[in-house]
């Protein structure tokens, strides 16, 4: 299970970007976070073409399918959405990892039992 943003575990920062300029200013080693995908698909294409790891915030199964097709390393979504997306991701062997946004450590076990790829705490998002 992937755990991002917990103080015990070293993990990359996910930095929200809204423009090409934001991507160019992002720190090496950070993951570019695009949101919403419907407004940032051109940025996703740029990241893929330039081998810049990126994540996308997704709210629907359709956005998840597009996010994977565009080459996202991660999808960040609410737990309910992750529960719908994860089985489809496994069925189609998505390369993109699904991260459920959580706010408390005690949620990790619940997400793990659900078979979701991982969790991300808000502290990991800048």
Helices and strands in order:
Layout: E1 2-4, E2 14-17, H1 20-25, E3 31-34, H2 37-49, E4 54-57, H3 61-69, E5 74-77, H4 79-91, E6 97-101, H5 107-113, E7 118-120
Parallel strand pairs: 1-7, 2-3, 3-4, 4-5, 5-6, 6-7
Descriptive account of the structure:
The protein has helices spanning 20-25, 37-49, 61-69, 79-91, 107-113; strands at residues 2-4, 14-17, 31-34, 54-57, 74-77, 97-101, 118-120. With 126 residues, it is an alpha/beta fold. The chain has a single domain (2-124), classed as TIM Barrel, CATH 3.20.20.70. Strands 1-7-6-5-4-3-2 form a 7-stranded parallel sheet. The mean pLDDT is 95.
Q: Quick one: biggest sheet? A: 7 strands, parallel
Low-confidence stretches: none
Read across the widest sheet, the strand sequence of neighbours is 1-7-6-5-4-3-2
Taken in chain order, the helices and strands follow as EEHEHEHEHEHE
Shape: globular
What structural class do the secondary elements suggest? Answer: alpha/beta
Under CATH, the topology can be stated as TIM Barrel
In total, how many beta strands?
7
Strand fraction equals 15-25%
Quick check: average pLDDT?
A: 95
| Count of runs of 4 or more consecutive helical residues | 5
Q: How many distinct folded domains?
A: 1
CATH class: Alpha Beta
CATH architecture: Alpha-Beta Barrel
Output the radius of gyration.
14 Å
Q: Name the CATH homologous superfamily.
A: Aldolase class I
Terminal residue distance: 22 Å
What is the percent of helical residues? 25-40%
Q: What multimeric state do the chains show?
A: single chain
